[in-house]
Amino acid sequence: MTFANTFAQGSDAYAAARPLYPQDLLDWIASACRNHDAAWDCATGNGQAAVALARIFQRVEATDVSAAQVAEAFAAPNVRYSAQPAESTAFADRSFDLITVAQALHWFDYELFWPEVRRVARPGALFCAWGYAWFRGDPDVENKLLGPVAKLVEPYWAAQNRILWNSYRDADTLCPFDRLEAPELRIVVDWSVDRIIAYVRTWSAYKRAAADGLETQLEATLAEARRRLDPDTSHQLWVPLAIRAGYVE
Q: In terms of Cα–Cα distance, which of 68, 199, 220 is closest to 132?
């Protein structure tokens, strides 16, 4: 299963199930960015970041390798979506004041991506990538839902996921821009059991495991978790954001 196919499957469910990024992140990006004319949201997925950036920038170009994801993305009048790979776009040289990558930097071919960033960035443009890995918080949810599913799908995580799990620290040797210190931020959610289950089903490893014949076992595990957890109770979970930012000089 390719990267594009992994996230193309159930793209509408992905858009509905993923958490929102904190406003503090967008505020920090706005303050760190020197100009607010044009932004490129690369690997936009459901367009969540692109639509948020549209409130700050005059125009936003949002791309994704998956045409299905782009088709389901959130709309905004100053956001233009297109299906393009991160490493090779049709944008003109020196087009953008900001380049963002939300929850996707670990999937790229860095030898091709960084030259593309340099090509389309205006002098002094801000590059900012962020992502999140494992939600924590409610012990019941961890022990009865997240933990059992994570154990089943563990062999199906791609090697690239470990770059994210290491908070993009591996990218220090790959990203050519000096690190810009970013604030310590986290995503906090209050979700029902059904909402958590919907999120778990968007994991790339869950999709691979299901495609490899484990779907019945996975769904039985989720059903058991739903039986053991009160479906009418909200559960608070949180996850730190890994942020990698720098100016393209």
A: 199
* Closest among 214, 241, 24, 215 to 134, alpha carbons compared: 241
The string of pLDDT tens digits covering residues 95-111 is 999 999 999 999 999 99
Structural domains of the chain sorted by starting position, each given as residue range(s) with its CATH number in brackets: 3-248 (3.40.50.150)
Q: What is the rounded CA–CA span in Å between residue 87 and residue 1? A: 20
Amino acid type, 48:
Q
Distance CA 54, CA 10 (A): 25
Tell me the β-bridge partners of 242.
131
| C-alpha to C-alpha distance for 192 and 208, rounded to whole angstroms | 25
Angstrom CA distances, 47 to 81, 82, 160, 209, 237, stand at 9, 11, 22, 26, 23
Closest CA to 130 of 4, 38, 41: 41
pTM of the model: 0.91
Q: Assign 1 a pLDDT band (cuts: 50, 70, 90).
A: very low
Tell me: the pLDDT tens digits for 34-75? 999 999 999 999 999 999 999 999 999 999 999 999 998 999
**Residues in the chain, how many?**
249
Place of tokens 């932004």: 39
Mean per-residue pLDDT for 142-155? 97
